[in-house]
Design a protein that fits this description.
Layout lengths: L10 E3 L6 E3 L20 H27 L13 H28 L1
Antiparallel strand pairs: 1-2
Length: 111
Amino acid sequence: MSALQGQGLDSRPCAYCGKPVLTRLNRCPFCREEQPQVRLTGKVFKEGGYQIRRGLLYMLLGAVIYYFGGGYSPLKLPISVDPMYINYFAEIVVLGGLGMSLYGLFLRWKS
């Protein structure tokens, strides 16, 4: 009886010769090649960072809208916009960005 029989659950095929290799081994006992290590990262961690960046970008966009539309900049807009729209729209964008950033932090904390 072979030493590898009965080890089907914790063996994988060699990337070079295709023969079964135990998962705990770093080298194939048949061809003596080093087995490549595969590292998996969680998608939740990546998505959390994406949500944080997107939320911060929305907050920056809301601040820029408020700065230029509110008349705080020496540059003037070529069109006139009612200040009520600028104030409410900028606040909604900033608060939405803050919510997205907090959601991204929650995703990072959860992962």
